[in-house]
């Protein structure tokens, strides 16, 4: 049975890419009966009906999937954060990083509008960049009309499925607009990617870019901890993971427990205090979450 990957979903049709061809498929009714739905990014088996038509029969196991945008099997997310207008926000960045870690999606931090920095801001940002790089995150900095942007971003997209994320106004659309025209795409595709035009149907599509796949949606603007339990939270802080095996209690939550290696690392400066404060805030959010029935 032929196999392929869903590259686009629109009006009940799934466009499955297989060896250079795009097959327009419907999903079997059995998926609907089981409450399942194929997603862009899914690897699927399908049966052929006619030259370019088919039916999806099997959805292969997913590495991960997001609800907004509805997409599966993502390798990495480029987190677009502006340095100014809006100002750089570590708690929002940490929120994004934690949720991506929980989905096993590799984050790349991309800082925009660096040309708006004054001297004081430059020192502050240098310190933040050093903090996040020491944790193990990759940080890119770009500015308006950056001539080296393509050279910075292209190698990161190769052989990966990538989504963009970040709050509104940080330059996600500009970033997409910079990446997509290098493909010589039709203007309509770019306009659609940027959500322009009142009558544009919003859909997620994976487009081949720089030897990889990029979701042509400006992505998601916020993350909640709906699916996370409090015991899982610290595993999404790589700087905590390094220390927590040394905690006295195996099930240590790093809140009120004695002889906690994470809290000791915060006191010694090995873990940044603002990261720990964010952890406590997220922890409270999860504890206070109303149960869903």
TrEMBL record:
Binding residues annotated for Zn(2+), in chain numbering: 247, 252, 254, 260
GO MF annotation list: GTP binding; GTPase activity; metal ion binding; rRNA binding
A UniProt-annotated Pfam family: RsgA_GTPase
PROSITE patterns in alphabetical order: ENGC_GTPASE (PS50936), G_CP (PS51721)
Domain EngC GTPase: 72-221
Keyword Metal-binding: yes
One GO process term, biological-process aspect: ribosomal small subunit biogenesis
Family label: Belongs to the TRAFAC class YlqF/YawG GTPase family. RsgA subfamily.
Protein name in UniProt: Small ribosomal subunit biogenesis GTPase RsgA
Organism (species): Psychrobacillus lasiicapitis
